[in-house]
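Hypothesis: this fold can be encoded by more than one sequence.
Test: take the structure tokens below, design a sequence, compare later.
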């Protein structure tokens, strides 16, 4: 997946990503223990996002376990809606608060080794 090549340099761990350029979705197999319902919701969210505003959406965990949604576009992409992308990310963060909190908790417990009592 050439479009996702630059994800290798990101700090933290990429959970999933979608690209409007080559119409591909990437899910990190390291997170296969997530349920199929969660995987499906992530795929729908990412693909819908890139169909609406274009570019690439990357969902990744920071080293501290925070879930980050980042968007980027090819330099010459005149159809990419930068303002729309920012607004759509803000809306996703508002509408999916519980979903994102559960994904963060999953990561902190299973990957960072935090205990549930820390909450």
């Amino acid at each position: 997946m050439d479009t996702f090549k630059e994800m290798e340099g990101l700090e933290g761990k990429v959970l999933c990503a979608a690209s409007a350029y080559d119409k591909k979705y990437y899910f990190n197999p390291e997170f296969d223990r997530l349920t199929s319902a969660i995987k499906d919701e992530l795929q729908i969210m990412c693909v819908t996002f890139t169909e609406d505003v274009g570019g690439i959406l990357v969902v990744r965990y920071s080293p501290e376990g925070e879930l980050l949604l980042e968007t980027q576009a090819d330099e010459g992409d005149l159809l990419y809606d930068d303002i729309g992308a920012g607004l759509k990310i803000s809306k996703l963060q508002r509408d999916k608060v519980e979903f994102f909190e559960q994904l963060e908790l999953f990561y902190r417990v299973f990957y960072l080794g935090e205990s549930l009592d820390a909450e």
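Helices lie at 36-53, 82-95, 97-110. The CA atoms of residues 68 and 106 lie 14 Å apart.
Hypothesis status: open.
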